[in-house]
Amino acid sequence: MTVSAQTEFAATPYRLPSPGDPSIIAQRVHTSEAAVADFADSRWPLAPLGAPAAVKPGLLTWDRFPEQLRESFRRAAWLLINIEAPEVTLDKSGSSSVEWFSASTIRTTVMYDWLTFAHWVDERGIGRLSDLTRDDLELFVRHLGEKGVSRGTAVRTLRSLTRLWAHAPHLPPGDALPMPPWEDEPISDLLGRGERRGENTTRIIHPATMAPLLLWAQRFLEFADDIAAATARWNTRLARIPRCETRAGFAKASPLVQDWIRNGVTSLPARLQHGQPCWDVQYLAAMHGDVHPSDISNALKASGRDFALDVDAAKPIDSPIIATIDGRPWCDHIDCADLPTLHKSLSAACLVIITYLTGMRPHEALALKPGCCRVERVDGTVRYTVSGRKHKRVRRDGRTDPEGAQRTWATIKPVATAIATLERVYPDEDTLFPMMRDSNTILDPVNASKRITALIDTANRLRDDRHLPQAYAIPPDPAGAVTLRRFRRTLAWHIRRLPQGKIALAVQYGHLTVREGEGYAGLKTDGFAALMEREELTAIVDTIERTRDDVASGARISGPAGQRLVSALDAAPRFSGTFLSAADLNRVKRDTQLRVYDNPKQFLTCLFDPNRAACLHGRTSRSTEPRLDHCAEHCANIARTDRQVADMQREVTRLRREAASPATPEPLAQRMLHRADTFAAAAAHHNATSAEVTLRATEPTALGEPAS
What we know:
- The chain is α+β, with helices and mostly antiparallel strands.
- The protein folds into four domains: 3-197, no CATH class; 222-310, no CATH class; 332-520, hpI Integrase, Chain A (Orthogonal Bundle); 528-692, no CATH class.
- It is built from 23 helices and 17 strands.
- Strand 10 (395-396) and strand 11 form a beta hairpin.
- The relative contact order is 0.07.
- Mean pLDDT is 80; it is low at 1-13, 90-97, 193-199, 499-525 and 698-708.
């Protein structure tokens, strides 16, 4: 170290480390099982900080940073790890900063956000962070936009640079980043309006993808016993293979080969070894027993026959197939080569069911242990609970607690079945999801999401192989890969957006009863109630905007609540962006005039007034939302538009066509005709009474903007 550098360090209010000092101080080390790197090392493992079981701590790799800037970022990272967040990052209104970053967040901050910035600075020929100006930082913001990164990534990156700037008082003068421009003006002004990320705005999994995915997840639970039986049978056969080749083994193998020749066998199952096909002698030995693979190989060579190598040949396990799909076996046999894929698909299927139908966060689901599910019978009602660990915002001594906090989720029978399946198939494991590992890789949501992608591929192949109906096809999700973190918001969306509230899933997927739907009461904690409320309010805004568009296109409105719908359209703020802030939603929530609910099942809009609601007959008028599964045609809260009536008339045609089909049972046909007649009468009433609407010419206040 040079004298000048020592002088700079001495001038800072915090003593920075030197080579020989630890990269993580003793007070921040949570586990002694992982070694602490030296400050001067090129790689800093973050495992000593501790992490939940489902989180991969990762490394900081300094060789990836530009050489001129490497030590500046190394010193800043040391502060990020070892000292509390500067107050300047905590005292700001609306700040999401925490006193201590988790290991995974530190890695993201340093190896993604800071590294991106470091290379941009280096490419501009700037050798010290202190040489940067506010104009430079504004150019970096523009650079992020030109790269096409998402708004969420851009915001995260800029906030990471705020943390770098906030540590300036503890760093040598040359490392001090100037105050970023986004610290005294809104980030949105620099980035422009756009989509914001986070749990509340995570894209839902499209229902057209989610429904068959959940269907296949449940199917795989039915396949579990077949998969387990085939695995046990295969392991038994492998165990019979002698440890080494013998003369006796060769004597047994030779007649086998001669039988193949006499029976006209011209090709044998093969596998790829180092990219080259070779006989799969292990499979042949396992299926015929009491011979070593080398015995088979030697007998084949001694026969003088040139058997073809069939790498595509089936390698069935002699285990029966019991489970069925649509009355037929789900497969002809289980191939020994397919066992790893099937186990991973089974594990992923259980994870889909557990994560989606509980509302757990990814880390919470992946950290579940055997024995976590409890079944109770109280007053004739079966209740299911799952115990695990909550990790979000769990602190201990100013640090994230890797062990998390104990919590219990109320859940439903399919979740209990999935857990029981995992416990039965993997009885000796200390985690419910042993097959989420890639070799020795620690459990994490990334690996788990890859398994879900593989499950989708496997399901679609099975659908094609078994020539199953189109309903079994899992189409690609328009928003991209189906990742584990998307299930929680998708559940909230389904519960709140689809008619019938808490039992929406029963309608959508047909596996829950009304009573089981009550299990979601357990989600009122842990932020899920707020997530569902956000979905409800966002749905209201969507309904208002869609109806405004209909009216602007000349649509007419009818119904006893038609004028109230017009008033709501006039009063509601406009929304032209992709994100509703908390303030936006509170404004919608406070205005009782804006209780506008779409009910696509009944082809109507509900202008909810509890004092007029037919759905609340016999219930308290203090209800804050309608029971959309109990809509009645005589209700005073109903309004309809031309678009809804057009959809309703198409439903009338469909119902009458299906009722006339010889395949439709008579009682069902009569119910269909009754429903068709009810809708036809409502459509006729709309056509006779609807009126054109002209909304106010003045522009309402835009959401996302301050009220004037």
